[in-house]
Amino acid sequence: MSRRTLPLNDTLYDYLLSVSLPEPEVLRQLRAETARHPRAEMQIAPEQGQFMALLARLMGARRALEIGVFTGYSALWVALALPPDGELIACDLNEEYTAVARRYWEAAGVADRITLRLGPARDTLEALLAEGAAGTFDLAFIDADKESYEHYYERTLHLVRPGGLILLDNLLMRGRVVDPTNRAPAVEAIRQLNEKLHRDPRVDYVLLPVGDGLGLARRR
Ligand SMILES: C[S@@+](CC[C@H](N)C(=O)[O-])C[C@H]1O[C@@H](n2cnc3c(N)ncnc32)[C@H](O)[C@@H]1O
């Protein structure tokens, strides 16, 4: 028995991955290529991708939304968990990062399930709402610029169906949220959002110590 989540040292973390992670080869290759990227730390952890894919399967998700694609690792986990006629709308503004993503989505045979919408995510979310996509998504993942998280959350809450799930990454900000001397705008934005999420009556909510802090908000 343990009354709190176990801290993981490197040995225990490697063990966890060795007995948990059935990572498809194409995802392993994408992770290896991204590890050489100067912004590699932006990628989610493999067990988080695996967890998100399991959630998508549990929900029978057919339509998913991702805000913040980078080289496409989290998007690929989710796309692989969708049925062949499922769709993932993937939002990012960086052509260079997402060119890598497109390559791996092709290699994995799921490029036809993923629609990449390049441009500021705020504009893409407004466009989706204007196109009549409110209430059509089963699952959404927010993993882009932290100052906009609250805005993305509010718009995404309209885009997911009742019972749909919104995942929010980096809610612990590598511990910076509990450093009172850190007044950086991104940290302040996440602190405010954390306060809001845990008392938001519109969702069932849990914040888990997965990766850098993963929030799960189920629209009521
Ligand atoms: C943390 S990374 C995403 C990591 C990705 N989910 C993964 O697991 O590999 C954040 C991404 O958000 C994108 N981004 C930042 N600001 C954005 C904005 N205003 N609109 C759309 N995308 C944005 C960046 O280009 C970057 O690719």
Describe it.
This protein has 220 residues and is α/β, with parallel strands linked by helices. It has a single domain (10-219), classed as 3-Layer(aba) Sandwich (Rossmann fold). Helix content is 42%, strand content 20%. It has helices spanning 10-20, 25-35, 46-59, 73-81, 95-107, 121-130, 149-159, 185-198, and strands at 63-67, 87-92, 114-118, 137-142, 160-168, 203-208, 214-219. A 7-stranded mixed beta sheet has the order 3-2-1-4-5-7-6, with helices on both faces. Strand 1, helix 4 and strand 2 (87-92) form a beta-alpha-beta unit. Helix 3 (46-59) packs parallel to helix 4 and helix 6 runs parallel beside helix 7. It is globular. The relative contact order is 0.12. The mean pLDDT is 97. The structure holds S-adenosylmethionine.
- What is the H/E order? HHHEHEHEHEHEHEE
Number of strands: 7
- Low-pLDDT segments, ≥5 res: none
User: N- to C-terminal separation?
Assistant: 32 Å
* Count of helical stretches: 8
Total domains: 1
Largest sheet: 7 strands, mixed
In angstroms, what is the radius of gyration? Answer: 17 Å
Structural class: alpha/beta
Give the CATH class: Alpha Beta
Question: Could you name the CATH homologous superfamily?
Answer: Vaccinia Virus protein VP39
The averaged pLDDT comes out at 97
Assign an overall shape. globular
Strand fraction equals 15-25%
| Biggest sheet, spatial arrangement of strands | 3-2-1-4-5-7-6
Helix content: 40-55%
The assigned CATH architecture is: 3-Layer(aba) Sandwich
Name the bound molecules: S-adenosylmethionine
